[in-house]
């Protein structure tokens, strides 16, 4: 009986610890930023047995629709800084990164069920809200 009663306290402790760690990392909660990270962030890059399975794994594990996508392989703090000190104004609320990022571009093949994977190093343009990235607009060749 005592063990059953400790679960809510343990769960609450874990939730509070997670919130504290997020605040300690300088991460504020913004649903659109969470969506951006779910769709585009993978650091360190997930290891897979072959290159063709990476994109399939990422889209299915994240519940993303079958379409072209780009994954950024950098720390969240580095990506977030594009919206502040490490980005140049681009258009409206969009900013272009000063540094280049390691990326993986997943392009859906004509069969609609598999992807081609391309590793890139590019600058990115992102839309920002409350000093956080909310949408990947494009990648820029140098």
From TrEMBL:
Keywords, alphabetical: Disulfide bond, Secreted, Signal
Pfam families associated with the record: RnaseA
Superkingdom of origin organism: Eukaryota
Similarity comment: family membership: Belongs to the pancreatic ribonuclease family.
Compartments, record wording: Secreted
Ribonuclease A-domain domain span: 29-140
Lineage, opening ranks: Eukaryota, Metazoa, Chordata, Craniata, Vertebrata
GO biological process, one term: defense response to Gram-positive bacterium
Protein name: Ribonuclease A-domain domain-containing protein
GO cellular component: extracellular region
Any GO molecular function: RNA nuclease activity
The UniProt record lists the keyword Membrane: no
Signal sequence bounds: 1-26
Chief place of localization: secreted
